């Protein structure tokens, strides 16, 4: 499982056709969508990461959640300790393919203000 992350290009760098696969970084922990927010916060703390890749019971990527998102849910007055990650994912997240041109992925990330973009294969499995 990997994430495409934005990396600044040096000034004067010659553009080269590169794909997401050329720039993928190892992702943080991959967790199941039935994990509670409490446990997810603990996993993030122990892994020292700012995001978790979320998969369903079949291993299909369903989204990415950030520490800030989890804290917002946790601090909400309607929060209970039974809230699961699948409860807070509002829709299937933004994903990219390993063969997507890096320029296209960066454009999508800027447009959505994402710091990371999960990379999935043709079947939706986390890469």
From TrEMBL:
Xref: InterPro entries: CBS_dom (IPR000644), CBS_dom_sf (IPR046342), Diverse_CBS-Domain (IPR051257)
Keyword Ribosomal protein among record annotations: no
The UniProt record lists the keyword Mitochondrion: no
CBS domain span: 30-72, 97-125
Keyword annotations of the record: CBS domain
Record's protein name: CBS domain-containing protein
Organism annotation: Streptomyces boluensis
């Amino acid at each position: 499982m990997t994430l495409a992350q934005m990396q600044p290009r040096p000034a004067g760098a010659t553009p080269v056709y590169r794909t997401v696969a050329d720039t993928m970084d190892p992702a943080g922990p991959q967790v199941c969508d039935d994990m509670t927010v409490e446990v997810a916060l603990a996993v993030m703390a122990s892994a020292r990461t700012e995001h978790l890749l979320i998969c369903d019971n079949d291993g299909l990527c369903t989204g990415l959640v950030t520490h800030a998102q989890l804290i917002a849910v946790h601090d909400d007055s309607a929060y209970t300790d039974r809230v699961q990650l699948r409860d807070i994912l509002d829709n299937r997240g933004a994903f990219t393919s390993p063969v997507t041109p890096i320029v296209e992925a960066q454009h999508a990330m800027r447009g959505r203000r994402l710091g990371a973009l999960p990379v999935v294969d043709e079947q939706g499995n986390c890469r």
